[in-house]
Records
---
Amino acid sequence: MKKAVLTFFFFLFILAILFVFFKISWKEELLIIRSFPKLETKGTTYASTAFYEDKYWLHRVNTLERLSIMESKYKGLETDINYDPERNLLYVSHAIQEIPALPLQTFFQYVTNKDAHYFWLDIKNLNKNNYTKIYDCLVSIITENGIHPSRIIIESTQPELLEAFTDFGFNTSFYLPYFNLYKLTEEEILNYAKEIDSLLLRSKVNYLSSGYTTYPFIKEYFPEADILLWHTKKNIFTPYIRKKLSKDEKIKVILQEEISEGYR
């Protein structure tokens, strides 16, 4: 009798584990495809002429210390930047700071071989009030540092403000904020897809960028779009996910994490 009770509770325990694995977070973790409501979209990205030799780039290179350690290992570097309107200055930081610690101009000056690298710039506070100033600053900085605009990706959550960047020769990306695909209703998914489609139709960008868990959504509603993703997790599923993503020719860059001194 005791053995039967233990067996029963063990069985319930296994069922609970399986429920968590398949019902809650692991569907998202393993990119398990859910059913999508049908929607015909017309928005897409503008083809880029850029060719990146390496698909895997390094996430969050926000200090000179980290740059000096990692630039010999990665051809592609992702950096967070903000704009300071009082100083008319772009600086490297994941969050807005009162005193900019590292001007973007200085960051580029410390890159050893600029012609051997590509730069993904995540502009945190680009908006309709400052995008022309940011554009002017970036053009000035890359000109002074001898960096061709095709070696730079400009990313923002406001794609309609990136047309001038695209026309100048920068590669541009519409950053799709994170959402849990498996917790949204069909109506919420449709509304989100319609919103993105509307923004794309009013914009001129080269890529859609997002965390890797958004990949099934992008492939469903924007199958012709070129994609930038980040997959910074390291667990037993990492090789499987990386292999799956690497096979898709529409995915041009995958950011990965490698912790080092100077990580911010």
Note: The CA atoms of residues 29 and 213 lie 7 Å apart.
---
Amino acid sequence: MPVTLRQLRYLQAVVEHGSFSRAAESVFVSQPALSLQIRELENAIGAALFDRESRGVLLTMLGREVHEQALRVLDEALVLETMGKRFDSGPFRVATGIVSTLAPYFLAELLERLQALTTRVELDILEAPSGELVSAVLAARIDAAIVSVPLGLMELTERELFEDRFLVAGRAERLDAFRALGDRPRAEDLAQSDIGPLLALAEGHCLGDQVLGACSMWRLQEVHRGAGSLATLSRLIANGKGLTLLPETAALSERAVSPDLSFHRLVPPEPARRIGLVHRLASHGQPWIELLAEAATSAGEALVGAARKAIGGRS
């Protein structure tokens, strides 16, 4: 017969009160019912747990060891019994992926906002390209990811957080040559100019694909894809190696490191990526989703707002 939590609770009551009668009263059962459960526990263990004496009941040597183990089991059972309430009210620990072209610029703002919440949300961060993060969410290795949307996957719920527009980035003289193409040069005009080459992130980075999409007609021989991060790409551009499109979220941080980096804002409709929070359908309605989404939206809007104020552009 298996040991039950009821038996362990009755065992603890007997130890605490020193008698079967007082223990029965404390757990609101009759003494015979409690004594029966203790006998069944002793049968399951295979030995007596109490010495019944006229002065009371005392644990046997084995009984003391069983009692110590019972306390550990009851503590763990209490954790399980209260887990649902704690899960609804926090604190929450969420394994969250952030696309690598956003994380270095965005994470500090996000954590600052999460720390200000009355309900604590703690993140275990995974930084990786978008494709890896989406695979990790689908495989339940992480709870959510902050990536470019839409993805269009039926298995995932998406929530758009903010718009991150692209800026033409390069040294001042290259941007002057680009502006000289006309009064309102557009991203696709990069494909018609001789001021390149166009630099983009290496294969596997969705931002690199987005840049090429925005500059849809760029001559393939004039596209250099090899940089593994926006930091590397920005250093190359600042050293006069070409032009690229950088997201607003990265612009001010990269210019602070590379003062020779300049920006030009394109005419509306400006090319942009849309940043969103994605999670599995099974997570729908869990309280941390709203908390994380609101903090991420606020963090993203603060970054792009600062870029638009410093560089110019409509809000």
Note: The first helix runs from residue 5 to 17.
